[in-house]
């Protein structure tokens, strides 16, 4: 039996959200905004800078050795081979680390995407009122019924339910939603501003490989000689801040609208994409949402 719509209190026009895409009687615009959450984009693999530098020096050393030999002088002919061997070892190790990081990030992204799909398909649409809603128990054994949700807010409510962007004593339906439009602090325009996760997932107007790398979702820092692996809570804080960021595709700057990080948080200045990860890390480490690195 279909649940009752919270706006008209009837169940006659209620239909599960996954079924609306085969229902021609529902406007195409409503079907579009209630589409399944897309998979998160995978960051392109990064090349080993250290190995590239070693290969360049190996080439220069080989050229210098060849020039010396043609001039009848002694030359360290073994040096280029040593540099190449070290470069191959560095590149192999870097690829192993990158593969492990990509596998971990892929697992986390897949888990989150499955959670988004689970909540997304638990929703209902009232064809009479044109509003979406979640019945009691739809997203968890003790989850409360939602109020009427405008279709344009549905995806944001799904994300809030999965990511826990609400206080523990509140339901995801009462959480304050992030802004749906924002003005770039550099050009003051809104037409080309998108939340960073959406901008990276956009296949119609992709942001480019370089920007995708610079704006990629944070992954856990591996243990090094300088310190242990990143604490899961610290990674979660960086991801929350990353998810709240926006990108202006015209200016190629990141920014945070007022209230995007927390209630009452100020708007950020324009952040060059080259410094975005630094801004995220610095803000998360400070435990504040006011200023990033200057």
Q: What key attributes describe this structure?
A:
three-stranded antiparallel β-sheet, alpha+beta, 7% strand, four-stranded antiparallel β-sheet, 3 domains, 8 helices, 7 strands
Report on the structure:
With 294 residues, the protein is an alpha+beta fold. The protein has 8 helices and 7 strands. Strands 4-5-6-7 form a 4-stranded antiparallel sheet. The chain has a 3-stranded antiparallel sheet with strand order 1-2-3, with no helix packed on it. Helix 3 crosses helix 4 (154-163). Keywords: Membrane, Transmembrane, Transmembrane helix. The chain crosses the membrane at residues 51-68.
Please outline the helices and strands.
Elements: E1 14-16, H1 28-33, H2 49-70, H3 78-120, E2 124-126, E3 131-133, H4 154-163, E4 193-195, H5 196-201, H6 209-214, H7 232-243, E5 246-248, E6 253-255, E7 271-272, H8 276-286
Antiparallel strand pairs: 1-2, 2-3, 4-5, 5-6, 6-7
Helix pairs in contact: 2-3, 3-4, 7-8
Q: How many strands appear in the DSSP assignment?
A: 7
Measured distance between first and last alpha carbons: 57 Å
Order of helices and strands: EHHHEEHEHHHEEEH
Low-confidence stretches: 289-294
| Main beta-sheet strand count, sense and barrel state | 4 strands, antiparallel
Envelope shape: elongated
Strand order of the largest sheet: 4-5-6-7
Given the structure, what is the number of helices? 8
Transmembrane segments: 51-68
Keywords: Membrane, Transmembrane, Transmembrane helix
